[in-house]
Design goal:
glutamine amidotransferase, six-stranded antiparallel beta sheet, alpha+beta, 23 helices, single chain, 37% helix
Length: 587
């Protein structure tokens, strides 16, 4: 992932201001270590830190149209750029970069071209002819982006908080699926899918249509001019990503450049469940597998760096980001610059274990909609920033616009968890191919294992014990006075909050982090599904102990009926331990 920074209309075109913009841009250098660029037009500054994935030789930014009147700084990938180029026959492109189409689309279609882009992106476009500009962020918020305002009337844009928090009077998250136009002076939503209204869909479940949509989503993400691989935890989502990638890699441009053998990567504590499961999937698929170990102390030592880079104090996000942060560093050290990952599936299909308690299809569908809309504050933020911290790009096929449209159009009755249907059954069934199996049955029907559990059960307990050493009871008693917004209710949360406030002390910064009641990663609305949850508002999976136990009973029943292989039952007692907390991340 690249880093973008823009200061727009600051009433200061001095050399000192240029030096300050360069200084702030360097705070994002970890995101794009391959090249730095800065364009100045009067008191408008567009800076870029490049991670070169497509056309590394000539795609440096900012990018321009033919006469250099339109200037763009972009973070992301436009998967349909070749198709879009064909729709612009009268334009001459300066580079082979996928992002080069943006300035030319603006010339042809004005501000209404953003929905034509198929990919993940955030960009700033400056039209120097009238000094107007637009800013846009991808549909789901896979790429991170913030907007701020200076006392001098300037508008600031940055891929991360640290690019603008010290210089803006107020700043906030730039909302996904939106465009900001200087001409109108405000934000408007460009992404308007049918599911966004939360109306209940009625399309019958078609497993082959779902399978084809996901395969297309994965295949288009094989667009790369640099070495890549897949993140593989051994759970359903990452295993499907790996299986589809391995099946379709041969014959692609990526395979011709880098070989047809897929590389896979996994991280965990010694002897953790994820390591064992990932190894089994890698052996089945024939990937070149890289297994990395970390200790609890390694993770604790990284916490401050994680909070600085992830820019949150949300407990579950920090717990889950740390192993991914450590893994990303190892992957980049191998010379790999892009990975494909499994975020988004649990939100789309109701894969979290609390969905067992959904009272009806209407409630289940509404919750999946809310979860997708919030991804930019949780799993997308984690996946983007934990990898970008080391100059690594993560692509997420489950969050492909077309795939989401197919998956969210399914009658949610099919997503309900009931006897004979484990969570995410519609996804599992779509890839249950007896003739040409994608995965072994016991992997395809493996119970949800949330990432902080999967990397090793002592990880969370180690974090809590460490927080106990740094936060005393008196601090907790005064927490509501010290932190009146999103008051921490545990010592672990207090510890993370102290670190966050040291890096980002502004009130605007603390407002960028979500809060509210949650149980086992649910939204506040879903807490109403079970009366007992209101007395145990723990965002981790241990709050859903009853759900875990009922899931165990259901799995056993399925095994007895021959629906789920007996092998997966062997792991369930360990998975259901009271001491095994969960965190929302790919399974």
């Amino acid at each position: 992932m690249c880093g973008i920074l823009a200061v727009l209309g600051c009433s200061d075109d001095s050399q000192a201001k240029r030096v300050r913009v360069l200084e702030l841009s360097r705070r994002l250098k970890h995101r794009g270590p391959d090249w730095s660029g800065l364009f100045q037009h009067g008191d408008f500054y567009l800076a870029h830190q490049r991670l070169a994935i497509i056309d590394p030789a000539s795609g440096d930014q900012p990018l321009f149209n033919e006469d250099q009147a339109i200037v763009v700084t972009v973070n992301g990938e436009i998967y349909n750029h070749e198709e879009l180029r064909k729709r612009l026959p009268n334009h001459k492109f300066r580079t082979g970069s996928d992002c080069d189409v943006i300035s030319h689309l603006y010339e042809e279609y004005g501000e209404n071209f953003v929905d034509m882009l198929d990919g993940m992106f955030s960009f700033v476009l400056l039209d120097t002819r009238d000094n107007s500009f637009i800013v846009a962020r991808d549909a789901i918020g896979i790429t991170s982006l913030y907007i701020g305002w200076g006392l001098d009337g300037s508008v600031w844009i940055s891929s991360e908080l640290k690019g603008l928090n010290d210089d803006c009077e107020h700043f906030e998250c730039f909302p996904p699926g939106h465009i900001y136009s200087s001409k109108s002076g405000g934000l408007r939503r460009w992404y308007n899918p049918l599911w966004f209204s939360e109306a209940i869909p009625s399309t019958p479940y078609d497993p082959l249509a779902l399978r084809r949509a996901f395969e297309k989503a994965v295949i288009k993400r094989l667009m790369t001019d640099v070495p890549f691989g897949v993140l593989l935890s051994g759970g359903l989502d990452s295993s499907l990503v790996a299986a589809v990638t391995a099946r379709h890699l041969a014959g692609t441009q990526a395979a011709r450049q880098w070989g047809a053998h897929l590389h896979s990567f996994c991280v965990g504590l010694e002897n953790s469940p994820d390591l064992k499961a990932a190894r089994e999937v890698a052996d089945y698929l024939g990937t070149i597998h890289h297994e990395f170990h970390f200790t609890v102390q390694d993770g604790i030592d990284a916490i401050e760096d994680v909070i600085y880079h992830i820019e949150t104090y949300d407990v579950t996000t920090i717990r889950a980001s740390t192993p991914m942060f450590l893994l990303a560093r190892k992957i980049k050290a191998l010379g790999v610059k892009m990975v494909i990952s499994g975020e988004g599936s649990d939100e789309i299909f109701g894969g979290y274990l609390y969905f067992h308690k959904a009272p009806n299809k209407e409630e289940l569908h509404g919750e999946t909609c809310r979860k997708i809309k919030a991804l930019h504050q949780y799993d997308c933020l984690r996946a983007n920033k934990a990898t970008s911290a080391w100059g690594l790009e993560a692509r997420v096929p489950f969050l492909d616009k077309d795939f989401i449209n197919v998956a969210m159009a399914i009658d949610p009755e099919w997503k309900m968890i009931k006897p004979g249907r484990i969570e995410k059954w519609v996804l599992r069934k779509a890839f249950d191919d007896e003739e040409h199996p994608y995965l072994p049955k016991h992997i395809l029907y493996r119970q949800k294992e949330q990432f902080s559990d999967g990397v090793g059960y002592s990880w969370i307990d180690g974090l809590k014990a460490h927080a106990e050493l740094h936060v005393n009871e008196k601090m907790m008693q005064n927490a509501e006075h010290i932190f009146p917004h999103n008051t921490p209710t545990t010592k672990e949360a207090y510890y993370y909050r102290m670190i966050f406030e040291r890096f980002f002390p502004q009130n605007s910064a603390r407002l960028t982090v979500p809060g509210g009641a949650s149980v086992a990663c649910s939204t506040a609305k879903a807490v109403e599904w079970d009366a007992s949850w209101s007395n145990n508002l723990d965002p981790s999976g241990r709050a859903a102990l009853g759900v875990h136990l009922s899931a165990y009973d259901q799995q056993a029943a399925l095994a007895n009926a021959g629906v789920v292989p007996l092998e997966i039952i062997d792991n369930l007692p360990r998975m259901m331990e009271v001491g095994a907390p969960g965190v929302a991340i790919q399974s």
